[in-house]
Amino acid sequence: xxxxxxxxxxxxxxxxxxxxxxxxxxxxxxxxxxxxxxxxxxxxxxxxxxxxxxxxxxxxxxxxxxxxxxxxxxxxxxxxxxxxxxxxxxxxxxxxxxxxxxxxxxxxxxxxxxxxxxxxxxxxxxxxxxxxxxxxxxxxxxxxxxxxxxxxxxxxxxxxxxxxxxxxxxxxxxxxxxxxxxxxxxxxxxxxxxxxxxxxxxxxxxxxxxxxxxxxxxxxxxxxxxxxxxxxxxxxxxxxxxxxxxxxxxxxxxxxxxxxxxxxxxxxxxxxxxxxxxxxxxxxxxxxxxxxxxxxxxxxxxxxxxxxxxxxxxxxxxxxxxxxxxxxxxxxxx
Length: 334
Known about the structure:
single chain; 334 residues; alpha/beta
């Protein structure tokens, strides 16, 4: 029998209450696989978890707790570190709400502080809604930026992981125009170095890194843009001179396919959609988002709040379980 005390203690944020976040956390609490991987502690409004368990017919006993030490861990039971009251009228499934946006952010901040204090081993997040956050007066565009500011981490990056593909981004939640502006030699070099270090943590002794181009055909020798020539290639050569196994820039329309077939261990994408579309095509439900450059371990589902199916009881927790699995791996090999 597994000694649960040896398993990592994970803070699972409930996400935006108007979305599918609470539902997938509750479903994880009845999945024995969750408890083989970790000791889960939900973070968020306990009332929301209890109400949605009843309304959606999920057989979970929700136990509000006021401290980590009060939590218990067994399938069919979910300890929720309560972040405060959220009245039933404060949110409705599938609708934007400032109160729901604020509650979601409060849970992330509480979980991060627990991790920084060493009270939990990792943070696994359910999805936020950026518009709801904005209604609540939160200026950050997403988890990555919130956690970077909260932990004082000036250089953070997003790594997406699926069964066959890993992608790290040179830029994430910015406009396409801003993403192009961030294609500089220094940024590219830093992202390549981060990719190398992160894959080492995943057990790759000498990670094979492929760098995608920004422009069609990776610029075609300058015919379709010069970013590859003046920024991306010099960064690659600089990293190679230090002994890293990195190649490119490769045409974006083929490099993700090559990596998915095992030719490379990770791809550096230049902007959000370049990497996200590729990873979601290869495993939408099993994708995991890992934030790199933080002093804590944080993984997340690779999907949004899914307002269109919220409250219907059909959301699946496969991506959340994958995020827990990756966090557990990182917690064992910090």
